[in-house]
Amino acid sequence: MRFPLVVFSLGLGYFSFCISAPSSTIRTNHVIHEKRAVEPQALDWTISHRPEGHKRLPLRIGLTQQNVQNLEDMLMAISHPDSPEYGKHWTPQQVVDTFAPAEETVRKVVGWLKESGFSTEKIKMSANKGWLQIDASVAEVEELLNTEYHVYKHLETGEEQIGCHEYSVPAEIREHIDLIKPTVHFNYGPSPQSGTKFKRAGDLGQPSSSKFTGPKKSPNAKPVSPTLANCDEMITLDCLRALYSVPDFTPKSKNNSYGIVEFTPQAFLADDLDLFFGNFSPNLVGVRPDIVLIDGAVVQTTNQSFSLNGESSLDLEYAMGLTNPQTITLLQTGDLVEGAGFDNWLDAVDGSFCTFEGGDDPTQDGIYPDPLPGGFKGPESCGIIAPPFVVSTSYGQDEVTISAFSAIRQCTEYGKLGLMGTSILYSSGDRGVAGRDGCLNSTGQPVANGTMFSPQFPVTCPFVTAVGATQVNPNSTVFEPEGACEQVIFSGGGFSNIFSIPDYQKSAVSSFLKNHPPPYTSAQFNNSGISRGYPDLAANGANYVVAVDGGFELVFGTSCSSPVTGSFITMINDARLAAGKGPVGFINPAIYSDKFKDAFNDITMGGNQGCNTPGFTATEGWDPVTGVGTPNVSKLIPLFLSLP
């Protein structure tokens, strides 16, 4: 599968894009702050016209936060198994106080805006001082940022976006600004639901499927036998329990929590859950997840298809089945008109990340209240639920489709959640070393015949746990070693072009590059040795039996492996909570440590081909195909229980 989830087309109908302003308007003290990552013309967009200068263009300025440079060290202190501070997670207020922008930053940026002609009434600040919003026109923004906006139109769908190629700020305040929106950020792919009312969340990593002649929801349907004899052809709950030495699980803690993120219009059907549970977990028939509706979300059932129901069905059926009877929280995100992006669910679990008045990136996220006809008119969901101890998201995008500043800003928020004790999991992608929009050319643009590997995001963020995919090899059993997934999909993996290598991973990556050097040059991937590698670990991602739209289908992808891995971490958390300890939180420093080495099954077969190459190869130790390997839950539970 791609990332067997939905790679949502993150774009509003009106997107921002820009080009440098004429040189005569450039102020001498301004320096370029951000440039567009990918040219839209390379992906079927064309310049339509210049926006009218008087049109309102609300500008949002992300202020530089304090202590971000220390975030990794702070996380290591509470997450490394050898640290005396292990497990001492932070309170939300500690996080806000530690990272709030300095007063000097606020003063200088506000001063610049006032000097540029904006009155105090036009400048608003978010509660945590992290964002400024300016009520401005297109012409005023162009003058302020020394840039020029254009409206772009998609050749096939007619969808329009507005933005600029680059923008500048005064040299003396550049260090005080992370990013400014809307500017260079662009939604390069049209929504898969083009022509329908669904504007966004369509193809963020949809799981791949293969129909098979299993039971249908009919009076003559026959149950699927949960046997271990054919796990190479059909993965079930029992196959996973056998593969990963999962002990009998009965929740002992009442305070545990596990969240699954889904993006509207993707939704589960209640009858599909019952069809699956009737075959594999009878006592769950009639049980539903706790549903948290974020930004006007709905669990829509009017439109039904694999692309709309496959991801949610997969995630919930396996998460609920494995952790039964642990309650699963569904973080359903985005309304039917506009949809949502990653920042929207982050807003909902961490109020300090919210801008205000829906201040998310309009090129990546849903903006609420939704101005579009029929959209959600309520305020954005800001801190409406405490962060679950584990959150799994099977959606993603190409790293090249988000600016470095935006990626880093979002990544920082994942790190903050880790400080508060939450494990964040993302699927690593389903196209091997290739991106969902194509491999890259020499200038970093996604093209059909590209030769440069295209890493994914958010999995390249060093503060999330990236989950790759394995398979029970054909004609093998669950008691034999797995290989990297090479059926229908290829486990996403590689090296980031944005994020540097975290300390917890340096030894593993160095060993891979030294002892198993890939046969590629820097023209194909970031082989510097100082870049974040992914995935971190893996789990099975092939031939999952999933009930979708009244029947059973076989589903493939890292969309499968992420919620399954999240289920295992939830089991570990249950054991710790029952013992009077806290959740494990950010697990990467632990799983890369020598202490945990024997708790993973090393995967040494298969690869993740893409870009007309064999890709990387699964080999001894960590590799950019299956990470440190697949989990042995019976070994992981006592290891994590032994920690403070």
UniProtKB/TrEMBL annotation:
Q: What class of enzyme is it?
A: hydrolase
What are the GO cellular component annotations?
extracellular region
What are its E.C. numbers? 3.4.14.10
Residues engaged in binding Ca(2+):
D602, I603, G621, D623
Q: Which GO terms describe its molecular function?
A: metal ion binding; serine-type endopeptidase activity; tripeptidyl-peptidase activity
**Main site of residence?**
secreted
> What InterPro entries does the annotation carry?
Peptidase_S8/S53_dom_sf, S53_propep, Sedolisin_dom, Tripeptidyl-peptidase_I
Q: Where is this region: Disordered?
A: 195-225
What SUPFAM superfamilies does this protein's entry cite? Answer: Protease propeptides/inhibitors (SSF54897), Subtilisin-like (SSF52743)
Which residues are the signal sequence here? 1-20
Q: What cofactor does this protein call for?
A: Ca(2+)
Top-level taxon of origin: Eukaryota
Which residues are named in the active-site annotation?
E311 (charge relay system), D315 (charge relay system), S559 (charge relay system)
Pfam families listed in its UniProt record: Pro-kuma_activ
Compartments where located = Secreted, Extracellular space
Matching Gene3D superfamilies? Peptidase S8/S53 domain (3.40.50.200)
Please list the GO biological process terms of this entry. proteolysis
* Cofactor binding notes: Binds 1 Ca(2+) ion per subunit.
Keyword Protease attached: yes
What CDD domains is this protein classified in? Peptidases_S53 (cd04056), Pro-peptidase_S53 (cd11377)
Q: Which reaction equations make up its catalytic activity?
A: Release of an N-terminal tripeptide from a polypeptide
Q: Which UniProt keywords apply?
A: Calcium, Glycoprotein, Hydrolase, Metal-binding, Protease, Secreted, Serine protease, Signal, Virulence, Zymogen
Question: What function does the entry list?
Answer: Secreted tripeptidyl-peptidase which degrades proteins at acidic pHs and is involved in virulence.
Under what name is this protein listed? tripeptidyl-peptidase II
Protein source organism: Gymnopus androsaceus JB14
